[in-house]
Specification:
heterodimer, A: 378 residues, alpha+beta, Butyryl-Coa Dehydrogenase, subunit A, domain 1, Butyryl-CoA Dehydrogenase, subunit A, domain 3, 3 domains, four-stranded antiparallel sheet, 10 strands, 52% helix, B: 400 residues, Butyryl-CoA Dehydrogenase, subunit A, domain 2, four-stranded mixed sheet, 12 helices
Chain lengths: 378, 400
């Protein structure tokens, strides 16, 4: 029994923190909010050189062969620094499903390219209906000769405008159950018939509408079996939820530390405001919430790494907790900073906005509590 | 990071499970069947039951697992203790009694006591031959525990003690007590206290029962009038009592057992929600009820994994560290929320107590709901815990 990071994980954490402090200052984060690409190719290249893109892929695919817990450590630091760009979409949303469900040929084709930093990817799951259920997947993939033809609209697709490939969740059959007839395709983003529009978001993150009009996809680009894609999507959503939690944890930790530091320095009524219990107890509540997020997120990331049967429950518990607490912690961070926290110049609002975006990604607290209820057979 | 247990730990777990399977058959039927009324919690029958089960656990060698064999302990590992409490919780078996003796007095004595005292008292705590109580709080020293005014004055070979203590749980059936008393009135308040212990039958000790909001009389006021305590009945040095008391409070057992208890309670609530119909359908189909039950389950698990992090710190560093107070705080508040949800599910029936024909499970939830209000007062209020988190974990300035 040992529920703490190991030596190597602590080293990874420290080196990632140092690197991002240096290479990803808030000026860069802010610049990328208005940048058409939304990420820095220079930073992307440096992260790839550190082996981050291939961290969780086996060495035979030019990866580092580390575990999902190591990835969580990295994501925590990236969430703290608010690293802009398609890291999570490329590695977790697309790379992991290819590793878990891809053919040998697909793994050889995509994973080394991801690991080297040469390929950007994303997943196109949600549609304008906003549903996270299989019944919400309407984008049609129709067989045509040896290929498939895709028609439909995907919404909230992260970084589709810069992605080289899009993992697209499609409907290939209207079965008795909505879960039957879901098929995944690796779609070349340069294919004819794909129209991508970047949506204006509160965070400046690049979420896109992607319209597919008669987009041809070769059969070889099918990930998993025809009609049988839903279990791959479920696993993807669980891993994505856990990854998002690690990201949220890092941000919440930054807010806590920054707010506590401010409460020690800011003087009102002749004393640091951190001496007032009204402020101190706010900070204590934030500490409880962040410590809880740390505990449940690392447990869930361990469940991914070990392929533990408790993963679906762990992922939903973690996502429900982290979605709620990040939002609360970020709001309290602004409150403790008073007027300064409400200014555009202070970084606190970047975290409040990100907390909202993270909350709704892959299911909010209410959604995952209902999932927990179902898994417990309530 | 590794949540697995060693082969030795798993073998020990099997031993515990076998023992529980065999011995839980002897438990009275009311223990597991909630539809049978249990004895009143402050009755002689309930006390005898607690002592009987405690002695069985001790005879089987499951108590004082980490304490040295020479004092009657098992000489085992922290992880064996964790495994034992996990199994107790999973099997929903009763825990050990002599809660103060087992929880902090024996550990404090092992850390700070004289050899003769350890040899004499530790085995008697384990066997429940001596039941112990704690005399810290006073009418004017609650959250501000270091403000105790009870005086202990040296006189020959004794301390002579005068003062009043309050909230003495189990004082009326206790044989021995630990006492926080002022031995140097001129020193600053934390540096003038000593940690003494004495026989409750000593002349000058008077108890007056206090009735709790549950209607049970489990705690007392304790009056000490010229009580003579031999000078050698002290833990730690004279005037170092504050540090002994705070160290003793850190001896609370770590691990997942409290969390498993909470998880069991959530499962009881789920069961209640399935069985209880409102508006023609089970409460378990109500989306709001489902949200609340799931949230309690999540909180119980967040506590569980916080506790396991605390356990890791204990295993790595030998002590749980101040962060332990974080999981204690969440645990207490989750436990209270759970009781509130239970009462909500019962709706109009939540008003009915033991003795009423319509009372759900003979009013056990009403008792545990009322009892839960005390959990945020005993051993440090959430307000004090938040102060401790502020000061000791976050490094904020002292607020008082």
């Amino acid at each position: 029994m040992d529920f703490e990071l190991g030596q190597e994980q602590l080293m990874l954490k420290t080196s990632a923190r140092d690197f991002l402090d240096r290479e990803c200052p808030k000026q860069l984060v802010r610049a990328m909010m208005d940048d058409p690409k939304g990420y820095s190719p220079d930073l992307w290249r440096k992260m790839a050189d550190l082996g981050w893109m291939g961290l969780v892929f086996p060495e035979e695919y030019d990866g580092v062969g580390s575990t999902f817990v190591d990835l969580a450590v990295l994501l925590e630091e990236m969430g703290r620094a608010l690293v802009p760009g398609p890291f999570l979409p490329t590695v977790v949303l697309a790379g992991r499903p290819i590793l878990l469900a891809g053919t040998e040929e697909q793994k050889k084709r995509f994973l080394p390219a991801i690991a080297s930093g040469d390929m950007l990817m994303t997943v196109a799951f949600m549609e304008p209906g906003g549903s996270l259920e299989a019944s919400g997947i309407k984008l049609e993939a129709r067989p045509s000769g040896g290929d498939f033809v895709l028609n439909g609209t995907k919404l909230f697709v992260p970084d589709a405008h810069v992605a080289d490939y899009i993992l697209c969740v499609t409907r290939t059959k209207d079965g008795a159950a909505p879960e039957d007839g879901i098929t995944l395709f690796l779609v070349d983003a340069a294919s004819a018939g794909i129209h991508t529009e970047v949506l204006k978001t509160m965070t400046g993150e690049k979420l896109c509408e992607v319209v597919f009009r008669d987009v041809k996809v070769p059969r070889d680009n099918m990930l998993g079996e025809l009609h049988q894609g839903w279990p791959i999507v479920q696993r993807l959503m669980q891993e994505a939820a856990v990854a998002e939690c690690a990201w949220m944890l890092g941000g919440a930790q930054w807010v806590l530390e920054t707010s506590v530091d401010y409460a020690k320095e800011r003087v009102q009524f002749g004393v640091p405001i951190g001496r007032f219990q009204a402020i101190q107890h706010k900070c204590a509540n934030m500490a409880v919430e962040v410590e809880g997020a740390t505990s449940i997120t690392y447990y869930a990331s361990w469940a991914v790494a070990e392929n533990d049967p408790g993963l679906p429950l762990a992922a939903s518990m973690a996502k429900a907790w982290c979605s709620d607490i990040y939002k609360h912690v970020a709001a309290e961070g602004i409150q403790i900073h008073g007027g300064f926290g409400f200014t555009w110049d202070h970084d606190m609002h970047l975290y409040l906005k990100r907390a909202k975006a993270c909350e709704v990604a892959f299911g909010d607290g209410d959604y995952h509590r209902e999932k927990v209820a179902q898994l417990l057979e309530i | 990071m590794d949540f697995k247990y060693t082969l030795e730990e798993e073998a020990f777990r099997e031993k515990v499970k076998d023992w529980l399977a065999e011995n839980m058959k002897e438990l009275p039927e009311w223990w597991s069947n909630r539809d049978i009324a249990r004895p009143e919690l402050d009755s002689k029958e309930y006390l005898d039951f607690c002592i009987w089960w405690h002695r069985k656990l001790n005879a089987a060698g499951f108590l004082g697992i980490t304490w040295p064999k020479e004092y009657g302990g098992r000489g085992g590992t922290v992880m064996e203790q964790v495994v034992f409490y996990e199994e107790l919780a999973k099997h929903r078996a009763p825990g050990p009694f002599n809660v103060h003796g087992m929880g902090w007095i024996a550990p404090a004595m092992l850390a700070f006591g004289a050899e003769e005292h350890k040899k004499h008292f530790i085995p008697r705590i384990l066997s429940c031959d001596d039941i112990w109580c704690t005399l810290y709080s006073e009418p004017e020293a609650g959250s501000d525990m270091a403000a105790v005014e009870t005086k202990a004055v040296e006189d020959g070979d004794d301390f002579v003690v005068n003062g009043q203590k309050v909230w003495t749980s189990g004082g009326h059936y206790s044989d021995w007590a630990v006492l926080l008393a002022r031995t140097d009135p001129d020193a600053s308040k934390h540096r003038g206290l000593s940690y003494l212990f004495f026989d409750m039958r000593t002349p000058g000790v008077t108890l007056r029962p206090l009735v709790q909001i549950t209607g049970h009389a489990d705690f007392n006021e304790t009056f000490l009038d010229d009580v003579r305590i031999p000078k050698n009945q002290i833990l730690g040095e004279k005037n170092q009592g504050w540090y002994v008391a705070t160290a003793a409070l850190e001896f609370e057992r770590s691990g997942a057992s409290a969390a498993i208890h909470r998880e069991n309670s959530v499962k009881d609530l789920i069961d209640m929600a399935r069985k209880t119909e409102r508006g023609g359908q089970p409460l378990s189909r109500d989306p709001l009820v489902r949200q609340k039950l799931a949230q309690l389950y999540i909180e119980a698990n967040v506590c569980k994994y916080m506790d396991l992090r605390g356990l890791t710190r204990l295993l790595r560093d030998g002590r749980p560290g101040p962060e332990g107070v974080i999981s204690q705080l969440l645990g207490v508040e989750t436990g209270q929320r759970l009781q509130l949800v239970a009462m909500e599910l019962l709706g109009p029936y939540s008003q009915l107590v033991r003795g009423s024909r319509y009372a759900y499970e003979h009013g056990r939830w009403q008792e545990s709901f009322l009892q839960s209000r005390g959990s945020s007062i005993a051993t440090g209020t959430p307000e004090i815990k938040r102060n401790i988190i502020g000061m000791r974990v976050l490094g904020l300035p002292r607020s008082y």
